[in-house]
Design brief:
5 helices, single chain, 2 domains, 167 residues, alpha/beta
Length: 167
């Protein structure tokens, strides 16, 4: 009988401690959130452009980049049109900006073999995949690879579709 009373007492005590702890954490958490969002109109006017700029940069903030080139020669970074094979300046400027932003934010490539011996600028994720239409010439793709390499990308990999087999 004493054992049952001891178990019930211990369980009740653990339940009450958990309930009190949960209430304390919830109160402190809501206080912190309210404090974070409690900004004056002067602060709010200053924060809005920064948040808009960060939202724009977050699209390409991490992971690899995919440059797509359909048969018409238009260049796309993700789904965003950024020039053509004849004028790659917008694409290269965008890629450079993305890599500079990654260096500022210290967004490192997810690799287990990174060590302190590797310079930080080489630890930043700078992988670019090129997905090009089969109708483009080797020279056009080679020129695009060299332009993307000059923008700071490494490694650059080509994505190809499986060849269509005739039956």
């Amino acid at each position: 009988m004493y054992r049952i009373i001891a178990y019930i007492t211990a369980a009740s005590t653990a339940f009450l401690v958990g309930l009190i702890t949960h209430g304390g954490i919830a109160t402190l958490g809501s206080f912190a959130i309210d404090r974070l969002w409690d900004v004056s109109s002067q602060d709010e006017a200053r924060l809005v452009p920064v948040l808009a700029d960060q939202k724009q940069n977050l699209r390409h903030s991490c992971g690899y980049l995919v440059v797509s080139v359909p048969s018409d020669g238009t260049l796309y970074l993700g789904r965003e049109e950024l020039g053509s094979l004849d004028d790659t300046s917008i694409l290269t400027a965008t890629i450079r900006t993305i890599f500079e932003r990654r260096e500022q934010l210290q967004l490192y490539a997810p690799a287990p073999d990174l060590s302190l011996a590797v310079p930080k600028d080489r630890q930043i994720e700078k992988t670019v995949y090129i997905k090009a239409a089969r109708s483009l010439s080797y020279g056009e793709i080679a020129d695009l690879v060299s332009v993307i390499k000059e923008a700071g990308a490494a490694p650059i990999e080509l994505v190809v579709d499986r060849p269509i087999r005739s039956r």
